[in-house]
Model the fold of this input.
Amino acid sequence: MQEIVSIREANQHLSRDLERVEQGAELVIARRGKPIARVMPITEAKLLLPSAPPASGCASV
Done:
């Protein structure tokens, strides 16, 4: 489930919001109602990355 939070709210409740993300929630951070960032569990983010192996000398996520 995706929830929209303001920058101010995200700043004030970062620990709580990150706990919710760990439980599978997805947050969209907005400035003046305009979405500017998405915070999601790392396991979901990895699914969005290309499956090609990293270039030589690059670390993988």
About this structure: DSSP finds three helices and three strands in the chain. The helical segments are 7-12, 14-22, 42-48.
